[in-house]
Amino acid sequence: MTDVTRNATAPSERAGSQRTAASCAEPVGGCAGSPGEGGVLIADRQSDVRLDSERYRALVRDVLDAEGVPPGSETAVTFVGSEEMAQLNKAHMGHTGPTDVLAFSIDLVAGAHASSAPDAGDVLVGNVLVGDVVVCPAVAASNAAAGAGSRPGHDGSVTAEIDLLVVHGVLHLLGMDHAEPAAAAAMRARETEHLRRLWSRS
C-alpha cells in the first residue's frame, strides 16, 4: 500500500484492549469490491468465532443510516484471525501483536455527525466509499468477559463484544475519536445509543 496515513487514537478505556483508527489509500476488506445489501460488504477470513454475517451487515447499515450517511455509500467489515490482525497492526500502526479493531477511512463523510443526530442540513448526495473496519474475533473473545457492563446491555458475551467493536470501528470511519475526554464521552454515548437499539431487538 502507498500513501498510508497513520492516525492512531488513544487506547480504549478497557485495560489490555487497543482500539485504533487509521486511514489508507487502498481498502483492506474490499470496500471498493462488490458490496452486499445496503452497500455493506462483510468478509469473514477467520475460523476462531462463528459469526452471523447478516447481523453485522444490518448493524453497520443501521449505524450509517442513523449517522446520516447516504444509502448508496459503501462500507466493508472484515473479520480476520490473530496473525493477520497482527500484520495489519504492525504495518499500519507500528504496534506489535493483534488488536481488536482497526478502522481505515476512505472518504470522510462530512455531514455525518457522530456527536449528534443528523440535521436536515446534513443531507449527503452521491455514493461514498466510507471505509473498512477490520475486527479480530479472537481478541474480542479474550476481552469479552472484561467488557461485561462496559455499555448498558453488554452481557460479557463474544457477540456483545464484537457488536461493540463493529460500532466503534464504524464511528471511527465517520471521524469520531477518543483521544480527548470530551471526544471519548461523545463517542461512548453514540456507541451506547446504537448498541441499545440493536440489543433491544435481540
Keywords:
globular; alpha/beta; 5-stranded mixed sheet
Please tally the helical runs, counting DSSP H or I stretches of 4 or more residues.
5
| Fraction of residues in β-strands | 5-15%
Structural class: alpha/beta
Distance N to C terminus = 39 Å
Average predicted confidence as pLDDT: 80
Tally of DSSP β-strands: 5
Largest sheet: number of strands, sense, barrel closure? 5 strands, mixed
Order of helices and strands: EEHEHEEHHH
Please tell me how large the radius of gyration is.
15 Å
State the shape.
globular
Low-confidence stretches: 1-20, 23-27, 29-33, 111-125
Strand order of the largest sheet: 1-4-5-3-2
Instruction: Give the proportion of residues in helices.
Output: 25-40%
Task: Kindly describe this structure.
With 202 residues, this protein is α/β, with parallel strands linked by helices. Helices cover 37% and strands 15% of the residues. The protein contains 5 helices and 5 strands. It has a 5-stranded mixed sheet with strand order 1-4-5-3-2, with helices on both faces. Helix 1 links the parallel strand 2 and strand 3. Helix 4 crosses helix 5. The longest helix has 21 residues. It is globular and about 35 Å long. The N terminus is likely disordered.
